[in-house]
User: Fold Alpha/beta hydrolase fold-1 from Boletus reticuloceps.
Amino acid sequence: MLQRRFVLEPDTDHPLYTTAKQFWREELEANWHDPDAFTLILLHSTSFHKETWEPTLRHLFDGIFTRRCRPAAPKIKCAWVIECPNHGESATLNERALQRPPFYRTFGCEKYAEAAHRFMLRGPTFPTPFDFRREKLVGIGHSLGGVGISILPTLAPTIPFCALILIEPLLSPEGIDKLADLKANLIHGAYERRDVWPNRQSASMYFRERTRWDPSVLDNYVKHGLRTCKRVGHEPENHAVTLACSREEEMTMYRDPTGPQRGIESLNQLSATIPVGVIFGDKNDYIPRSVQDALVDPASGRRIQAVRRIEGAGHLIPQHMPAELSRVLLDVWSRLLTPNNTLSKL
Assistant:
């Protein structure tokens, strides 16, 4: 799988760096000038980073070529993963700005969506600008990213999307109070989380013993989800590493008082005009089943075109089961954009 990295620098209106990566395979370059081929836009979950999507995308591309002789196999140009500015590599670039107003302890889902929107309007060049507004876009978001990708298409100026696929989105149509216990547990977990290791090898062993992450996801986390420690005075401290998304920034994301509600409002609007699919795990280890059922309830007025539950999966589907997620994504994507789907023609 090929990739290239892009950095959109700050300006007077938005004093934060936004980083993104484009992923594709050489065989996909034949689709780059095909008006019927799709471009994927992916947003990640809290405490992770843009590279956490790599294993899923690798399996997804493999699946597309396995299925390419079938009528339902979608054509794709490439995938873009845009990083939340207080996560991963971006958090290091934005370290000083995040310690000052207007971003100090205020970063949430809406600001992630705004950063992605700005990147899509102003970045990147090859050397001519890549105009996302001319692409057939499919938005995919996990957890926090599911909220962000729900908000993104409603920001002005509008960037049109053909479809959205939400994976375990942190959306509660009956109000944020329904997630109060979950938020309290997540904040406590972030507060108690270990955040320093003597080196990356030690960190790798720590996570390998305590998580069910896919090995490729874990390797990417150790490489991109951690950063070199700094002493006062900003001097590197030997080979010690710490969390790229700090505990404080993670807790700030969980405390976001408005993002999930804004996401529901946006989803209510979007689901009437473009196909929307939702993927859940069948283990409710984070989001209560009642909240998920309310999100996809046909009586709500939201038009969710496809709902799938992945057997054996909990909330962290991209981290635990990237191969299975890629297969379900392909199935949902094909269903949403089939020619007989009336919403896909709007």
